[in-house]
Task: inverse folding
């Protein structure tokens, strides 16, 4: 499966982050301020900051000018960084879904495609990477009930395309903690939920998927504030990212204090949840309690 069919392991989002991190190191080692770097490429200090965080695209000319300013003269090193800039501007596989994909979610897809470990907590829905087609359609209809059928199907197709990363060569590790309420909420009706629960039971057999359930009996817990995802990448230069989705936007947290807070919350959730080996039994019990419909 090529990059166009499920996201390469180093999509444009992460390439921008890698290049930005290298440009920051070069700037700091050459004792150039962000203001000075911005003046060199006719940009603001804040633009340099966004470039170094990988949150904007790169013009090859700007990168070349910055490398000269930072004293990078070795041909091989310059060419490697300039190639990284070119690759970072290539559209990801999700570009074809631009008509139904908000800009703030495109960034997440790039991060998700490049992650080596995805840890998530869900309170309302089954995790998107584990949804069946019919369940995904029912979820999409909740937020886009007035959309044309063709648009609904494109949104569903996008979600199905995302799931391919779990089955590619060297897939990421997915560790999901799901509130029991999400598994009992009859999204799409009894038939859809029966299929979804059966698919979740099957997914627990995959070596790269770990699924835990927080039962009602657990009462309050560490993540009472809502769903979130923690993404980790293979390159040590890249920090973990906490992703929190909202109705019309999303938060991307990468500051150490925030990361530590959510990492502790996730660890506590994993302790408070039933152990992974009990998940098939729990899902089976919920499945048996569903009335045919």
Result:
């Amino acid at each position: 499966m090529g990059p166009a069919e499920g996201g390469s392991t180093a999509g444009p989002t992460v390439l921008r982050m890698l290049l930005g991190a290298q440009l920051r190191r070069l700037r700091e080692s050459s004792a150039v301020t962000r203001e000075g770097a911005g003046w060199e490429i006719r940009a603001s200090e804040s633009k340099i900051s966004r470039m170094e965080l990988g949150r904007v695209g790169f013009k090859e000319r700007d990168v070349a000018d910055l490398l000269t300013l930072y004293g990078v003269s070795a041909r091989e090193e310059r060419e490697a960084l300039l190639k990284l800039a070119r690759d970072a501007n290539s559209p990801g596989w999700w570009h074809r879904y631009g008509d139904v994909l908000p800009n703030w979610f495109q960034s997440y897809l790039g991060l998700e495609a490049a992650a080596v470990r995805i840890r998530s907590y869900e309170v309302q829905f089954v995790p998107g990477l584990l949804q069946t087609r019919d369940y995904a359609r029912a979820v999409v209809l909740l937020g886009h009930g007035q959309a044309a059928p063709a648009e609904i199907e494109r949104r569903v197709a996008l979600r199905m395309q995302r799931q391919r990363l779990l089955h590619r060569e060297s897939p990421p590790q997915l560790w999901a903690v799901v509130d029991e309420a999400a598994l009992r909420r009859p999204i799409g009706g009894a038939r859809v939920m029966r299929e979804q629960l059966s698919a979740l039971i099957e997914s627990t057999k995959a070596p790269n998927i770990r699924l835990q359930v927080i039962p009602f009996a657990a009462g309050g817990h560490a993540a009472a504030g809502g769903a979130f995802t923690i993404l980790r990448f293979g390159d040590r230069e890249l920090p973990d990212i906490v992703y929190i989705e909202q109705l019309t936007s999303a938060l991307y947290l990468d500051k150490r204090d925030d990361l530590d807070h959510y990492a502790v919350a996730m660890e506590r959730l994993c302790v408070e949840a039933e152990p992974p080996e009990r998940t098939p039994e729990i899902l089976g019990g919920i499945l048996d309690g569903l009335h045919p419909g």
